[in-house]
Amino acid sequence: MSGKSDPKQRMLETASRLFYTQGYNATGINQILEESKVAKASLYQHFGSKDQLGIAYLQSAREEWFAGLDKWTFAKHAPKQKVLACIDFLEYALRMNDFRGCKFLNMLAEIADSSPLMRQQIIEHKAKLREYIKELVIRSLPSHSPEEADLIGDSVYLLFEGAIVESKIYKDTWPVKSVKKMIKNMLGE
Amino acid sequence: MSGKSDPKQRMLETASRLFYTQGYNATGINQILEESKVAKASLYQHFGSKDQLGIAYLQSAREEWFAGLDKWTFAKHAPKQKVLACIDFLEYALRMNDFRGCKFLNMLAEIADSSPLMRQQIIEHKAKLREYIKELVIRSLPSHSPEEADLIGDSVYLLFEGAIVESKIYKDTWPVKSVKKMIKNMLGE
DNA sequence: AAATATATAGACTGATTTGTCTATTACAAA
DNA sequence: TTTGTAATAGACAAATCAGTCTATATATTT
């Protein structure tokens, strides 16, 4: 059960790397098996299908994402600073991943209507992120009306998402930097 | 050369439909040939490769997109109303396409680093859209400093893009509606 | 009518796809 | 030591992938 010798873990890590860098449809299970040095039967023993492996990939990506996000926001105390920490984490994560964008949005673009289960994973992840950000924004704006704070919360979330996809297009941090400035304005000086 | 009987046009239309609804990698050329009733040799005669067909798909999608955008903005005269018309066009287009999202972002997520030419098409399209919106926003805010207007222009663009991807996730118009409200605020009452 | 260009049908290649199956090996617990 | 579990290697299936090629047929133009 220790990392390197556990076939299931090895497979998931290799699949995660390949799905992200090459795309889900462009990655065959044979390549995953070769690079993780796992037998084909083991894949179907542990995951049952490529689709299920894709779901496991999204699940682990979600855990990783929120673990990172928590780490960055917990370092700050004021709600507004926590919101800005989300943006700083985003810039950090995008750089770390060479601007390959969001694992969930990339997958969503690939699967079309062929995997409702993966789609559900993606929706849940994004809905959770939306609530996460909205909660922080609302706490940053205690004097605003619920309607106003709600709108600003969604706007911060949509700017956040916009920054992800645009940084992937331009392979640059300008979208994140613009978004951070704009959010600072929206949350007040 | 009249529509239905022109193999090249027939192929491109069928490929566009299939690439968009099924994804680029998930669509084989054989399916395109069958559904467009075109011989395989004709495809390679006119396009040379599947990659080139993908590029032609993106080119025609760009023309279509800006033709639609122009139509909606030309109907308004005040710059601010033109910006809002962009959002209205977006909502119209997303609905029309059953919330399948942006053809360019979908493709970008699929090709990873396998097609620099397609990537270039995507970058050019988005850069053009960014300039289009920024120009309208700057004209909407004549009394703002260039730096402020520039930031708001990019923010509107990023909200616009965010609305596209989020409406695809949730298959709902709430992101577009939130973005329209927020942009109204940003451009002043 | 003859010549040229374009489209069609479809065989074929060689590689790859997901998934199943058999048979063998390694290891751990009883 | 025996028994049961998990991993391995790899053959195999049936389908599909992009792309090439030959041969035939249809139009258009000169």
Concise account of the structure shown:
Chain A is mostly helical and 189 residues long. In chain A, 78% of the residues lie in helices and 0% in strands. The radius of gyration of chain A is 19 Å and the shape is elongated.
Which fold name corresponds to the CATH topology of the largest domain in chain A? Tetracycline Repressor, domain 2
Order of helices and strands of chain A: HHHHHHHHH
Give the total of domains of chain A: 2
> Residue ranges of chain A: pLDDT <50 for 5 or more in a row?
none
The averaged pLDDT of chain A comes out at 96
User: Largest protein interface?
Assistant: A-B, 41 and 41 residues
Task: Give Rg of chain A in angstroms.
Answer: 19 Å
What's the total count of β strands of chain A? Answer: 0
Strand and helix layout:
2 copies of one chain form a homodimer.
Chain A: H1 7-22, H2 29-36, H3 40-46, H4 50-74, H5 79-96, H6 103-111, H7 116-140, H8 146-170, H9 174-187
Helix pairs in contact in A: 1-2, 1-4, 4-5, 4-7, 5-7, 5-9, 6-7, 7-8, 8-9
Chain B binds a DNA duplex (30 and 30 nucleotides) through helix 3.
